[in-house]
Every structure is written in structure tokens, then in C-alpha cells.
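Standup notes
- HV: blocked on the assembly model, inputs below
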Amino acid sequence: MGSVPTQGDTRLEVVLSAEVRAHALCRMTRDQISSARRKPGNPPEGWPAIQPSLLRNSDDQTIAAVAAVHGTLRRMGHSDPRCLEHWGILVSSRFLGRSSLVVALDRFRSDGVWGVSPHLIPHYALHSPAGTLSLALGIHGPNLGVGGGLSAEFEGILTALTWLKAGIVPGLWLVFSGWSPEFVPDPEGEPMADCECQALAVVLGPTSSFKLDRPCFQVVAGEGPESPRPLDLTVLAGLLDQSSRDAGRGSRIARDLVVHDFHHDAGIPRPHFAPRAPRRSRARAIASDASGRLRVELLSPKFHHVKEVG
Amino acid sequence: MMAEDPVWITGVGLATSLGCNLATLEASLLAGRSGIAVVTSFCTTDYPSRIAAELPAVPCPSGREPREFHALSRLEQAALWCVQAALEDAGLWDCRATRRIGLVLGIGAEWMGLWEADASRGGNRLHDPTQDDESTLQRVHRAIGLRGPAVNLSAACASSNFALEIGRAWLRQGLVDACVAGGCEMAVTPIGLATFGNLRALSRRNDDPTRASRPFDRDRDGFVLGEGGAAFVLERAADARRRSAHGYGEVAGCGSSSDAHHNVIPSPDPAWAGLAVQEALADARITPEQVDHINAHATSTTVGDATEAAVLRRVFGEALDQIPVTSTKSMTGHLLTAAGAIEALACMTAMKHRAIPPTINLDDSDVSLNLVANETRPHRVAVAVSNSFGFGGSNACLVLRAV
């Protein structure tokens, strides 16, 4: 499992950004997931109850994702689902369906074709958690699964910020999910070692002002070292917690003061990026893409309070 | 670049049961030829559905070692072929290392497919996560040598339209100089065919494969799985014009929504899928009367086809009677995450040849639509709408405009 690296001042170009307006992390054991599958908890006030039939066949990561979203709604104190009806839902999951396929292959070998569950594609494919979340929340904006592998977090944030900047959605839920450490199934599909299912739900909206009074995700262009994969969701949640507390204390840093000193490879022209003034920031790189030319940073109002990690 | 500046398709690559190049696919679609047959890649004796539009051997892209290429997973072969062919077709292959070319692919059940294939060879990948270090998307990105961002996504059967929308957005946002977008699907596997069959989603017309996929026909009994994919090179129109690139069409409008009704069953309320279509029309700045052709999602399921007919009526009203509607899944089968990409090709075929590919096997329609039944219909198509509705209640609509 990777961790969130720190990053010194670098010269990078911010190409996309969005505010993190709320978040919540959910960590569940397999037993807790089984319990939640049978008896979903009460929803936040004002939100629809989850019928057990909705989650009966869902992947473990979907159940953790629903719990994380409910946790976020509780932290927000948001009780009017109609306000979010047209928001988007993106779920960046990792390696869905591993244990289910172990079971499916076993049943296929023992019982033949008719032993294979009909739920594999509806509930264990990349689209499944996002679709189930749209049902659970009654959201009619677009829902999409992103990533699926070790770079899921980068791909999810890039897609989320793309949607926001393009005006495809007014705001969105971005949920990261995966196992820590990665689920290694035994022949019965049960984990061979202790592991927990994690889901981090994040509410994202367009950046609203020059004043940085909320943490921001930003996609920046420029080459640099590849970030460890996968992203440690507990570390990211910790950074968001700290950042949100700082924002709550009224911490403000004018974004005009942000400076990056990173010198990207000049070999590839970027004619479409307008020249920008250098800015100073305590931004942290949290994920990078396959080409190493784009990275995601978490920009905090006051990151120097955060304990170094990794 | 301004948000409203046009984005063109300047290159295509494809791999389908009806051919792996555009000319062959176009000829097959316009001839009303079915790509569906009895599954031959594995024994299907006990399967409820034993038919599919299987992809034959994927051609080895130029410059690659055939033995190494055919050792790759079939999904990766298809994706690699489509992406490389699209870049070659666009004339960007030789400059891919000096341009920021992005990659957005709709691939839905990648890992389950890879794990299943590995297990069938006696491998242990399913129980050894250390072997899962690189996704198919990343492998293709690296093998091609692209320098732009890459995203893998899935909205089930609506995936490819989402991919095109994101590719267009990246161009407009200045993230890329060009973007390859599309979808690939290889679901015809022992487990894949079994799970869809047991879901009772597939046609059981096993004794008559070419007549099994029959969208909008009263006797339809489910869809037929298809394999393959398609990829498009997207470029800003101004860039394409500057280098005198051929434009296949403009990605003029995109819209999306969720039913929030059921994981598998489409909502009986046409409002939500209709919202995606309305958004796409608004994005393209056109009225329903300006649409010349609709390539329906229509997979050949009893509920889905009827629901889509209601969606179209809600959005297009009386204008719908003048708009020819077809479902090319009658020939290609349902390529799931790649369906939208294949159907965009069908729309471009209609634009180019001024003729709409038919819905074959349409003997007795039970919906009130202006359907192109069984024979290609000559018709000028300047604006085409392509619907894709998927599991999870995902709806995505694409508007293509001739250039």
C-alpha cells in the first residue's frame, strides 16, 4: 500500500481544480459488511432508507461506498435530497469482483453453467458501485465507474475535475474504494489475511473564489516522480480532516500567493495552457498518471500543520 | 479553445465480428449482414444461450511481432489494434510521441475477464494481486507510446458515449492535443455467457443465430452478446483543418443521466433517459426537428426496446414520425461497453453513404417508430443521434454532425 508523498515547491501548471466540500472515510471488515448487507443502517435524516434488497448482491466495496456517502451526508448535515438530484456520481474502485469470481469459477466447475451467479455483471463490474449509489441516493445525474486498478484514484479525480470544468454536473460525489491490504481470496473466496474494505466519499464542487478556504484537488501538468500506487485512503482522509479543520478555523491563503518551482520537460509544447504567474503553495502530490506528465495535488489552506507521512 | 468550438473525429479503428476495418464494416451494415453465429470458442452445450457475435482473430497491428501480439489477452489485442489503427487512420501515428494524445476507453469487466482467462490456463492470478500491477488501459497507453492522460471508465452499455464526452472535454480544456476515445469488450467467455444467460437477458434462439437479435420485433427474446471495440481520434476542428485531416463527423452533443430505478431494469418513466437525450440535443444546439436519424440503443429485450420507444416519443414528439430509427445491434450483437462506439460508426456510415443501415429481423414491430426495417434506406443524414442505456440506470446520448 502506498502513501501520500510530500512535495516541495514545484513549477507546475494548474489545469483543473475543484473544492472538496465534505468527505468521510468508511473502514469495514468483512463481518461488518455482511451485517450491513443484511441490515443497512439508518440513512441520514431526510434521505431515503436503503432496502436490504438493494445491497443483497452488491460487492463489498459498494456497501462501504454507500456507508461512506451516508457518513459524509451526516457530517454535512444535509437533509434535502432534491438539492443534489442532478449531481454526478463517480466511483473509483479497485479490483472489483475478485472474491465473487473465485466463487463463480468454483460453482462453474462443480455445478456447470447454471451454477454461475447472474449477478456478476450487474453487481461486480466497474459500473456497479456508481449505479447502486445512484439508486441509494435517488440521484439522476450521470453515474460512472472509473479506474478499476491501481491508478483508480488518479483517474477518478481527473474525470471528476473534467466533469466539473465542462459543466457536465453542478457538483458530484467522488468515492474511492478498495481493500487494504488488497484482498487475497482463499479457494472459498474468503480473505486469506486480515484486510479491511475502505471507501472515502468526497463531495466536490467548482472552485468558487480566489480565496482558498476549502481544500482543493487540482490537476497539474508537469513531469515528476510517479506517486506510489494505490493511494492510501486513510492517509488521504487524514489530510482532508486536517485541512478541513484548518479551514474551519478560518485559515485563508490567497491562491495568488501559490508558487510552484517545478521545471517540466520543455520538449513537448503546451500551446493551450495560458501562461500563469508563479504561485506559492503547500500543495501535496497525491497521485500521478501513467505518463508521469499529470499529477493530482491536494491544496490545503494550511498544510504545514499536517504530520509528514510516507 | 472555447467550450463551443467543434471537435471532430479524424480517425477510426475497429474490431468487430463484421470486420476490422471501416470499409468492411460499412459494407456489412449496409448489406444487412449479421455477425452472429453459434459460439465456437468454447463448448456451449449446457448454456441457455449459445450464440454470439464473436470477434475472429484480431489482426496484428503493423510494426508488432505477431507472436507477441497474439500472446496478449484478447481484450488487449482488440484495444491495441483499435487505438493504433485509429491513430494511423488520423495520420497521427508518427507524431504520437511529440503530441499530448490522451486515451479514454470504456472497458467494463476487465479484471474478471483477465482472471477468468488466466484461471482457464491454470494460472493463479486471481489469488495473487501482485500480478495485477497494470491495467489494460495502461498497457495499451504504454505500448502505443502516448504522452497524454489516460482514463478507463464504465457506465456499462453507455460507456463509449461517456468516453467520447470526456475526450471532447479534454480537448476543450486544453489537456490534450488529440484524444483517442472509444470502448472495447470481450464478454463472450464461459463465465460471461453463463452469467448473462442466467440473468435471462440473452436470446435463446440458438437454432437460428442470424435471426436472434431482433430489436423492436414482437418476437424478440433478449439480446445477443457481441465482442470487439472501436476507437476514435478526436481533434479540435481548427487543428484538423490546419493539417487537412479528414473529418468523419463532429461530436456535436453529449448528454447523460441516471434512472435511479433499478440495477438492471430500465425505468418505466421515460423522463430520465429522455433527459440525457434532451441534454445532448441542447448541447448540440439543435431541435428535435433537425435530427435526421436515430441509432437506438434497442438491444432486443422486451422491456428495454419498448421503454426506449417511449423515451424517443417523449423527446421528439410528432417529429419522431419523420426520423428514421434503426438498431444495428440486430447485426452486430450487443457489444456492451463498446456498443456506443460501434453505433457511432454506424451513424458515420449513414452520413457518408447517405443511407441508413437496417434493423434486420424486424418482421412485426410492436412500437410506433419510423423504423428502417430489413433493408437499407437511402436518406441524407447530417445530424444523427445515438442512444446508449446501461445497467446501473446509466443513460448517455451522443449527437454526431456531418462535416
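- HV (later): unblocked. Chain A touches chain B through 75 residues (CB under 8 Å). The two ends of chain A are 10 Å apart (CA to CA).
- Next: hand off to the docking folks.
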